[in-house]
Design goal:
The chain has 182 residues and is mainly α. It is built from seven helices and five strands; from the N terminus they run βαββαααβαβαα. It has a three-stranded parallel β-sheet. α1 links the parallel β1 and β2. The two termini are 38 Å apart.
Length: 182
């Protein structure tokens, strides 16, 4: 995978992350966002849930299956937020959206790659101390996403494997350092 940026979305603010991702997509960069269930939204859960339920009320009057479509998974919510920041009806915008992928958790090919963060979108740097926030995965679960427990279980397994790998890597580096010293 050449020139692909993998972003770890844990503790990033939704809108700020989406704006940086949209700008990079329009400039021709391929981007993959992982752990979208850990994205944060400013404002408490009650407020965000009320906003989302108002959004759910918006539908086509005569045939609701024509749209708008209300995504419930965190990856699709991020995708839709990014889409709103891209001229997605033009060929340039369509090409930009094709370069973007978002996943809950960290799927198999991307768990071994280097994951980056976006400092301009980190919650600890952007959200003022004491302000309420909620996780996108929790909001998704409240509005009907049914896979949060499955993703959490898969993440635990991935973290256990990563811990074992890191211990082996550390041991190997110590052996190399010892051999170089001799």
């Amino acid at each position: 995978m050449e020139n692909v940026i993998v972003i770890d979305c844990k503790d990033h603010m939704l809108g700020r992350l989406a704006s940086v991702v949209a700008k990079q997509l329009l400039s021709g960069q391929k981007i993959i966002c992982v752990r979208t269930e850990d994205i944060t939204i400013s404002g408490g859960m009650v407020r965000q849930k009320a906003k989302y339920h108002r959004f759910l009320d918006k539908r086509h009057l005569t045939k609701p299956s024509r749209g708008p479509f209300h995504f419930k998974s965190p990856a699709r919510m991020l995708w839709r937020t990014v889409r709103g920041m891209i001229p997605h009806k033009t060929p340039r915008g369509m090409a930009a959206l094709e370069r973007f992928k978002a996943y809950e958790g960290i799927p198999r090919p991307h768990d071994k790659t280097k994951r980056l963060v976006v400092p301009d979108a980190l919650r600890v740097l952007r959200l003022q101390h004491g302000h309420k926030f909620c996780k996108l995965g929790d909001l998704s679960r409240e509005v009907g996403w049914k896979h949060q427990d499955t993703i959490a279980e898969l993440e635990e397994r991935r973290k256990e494997k990563a811990k074992v790998y890191y211990q082996q890597k550390k041991k190997l580096l110590q052996l190399k350092a010892k051999a170089a010293a001799v």
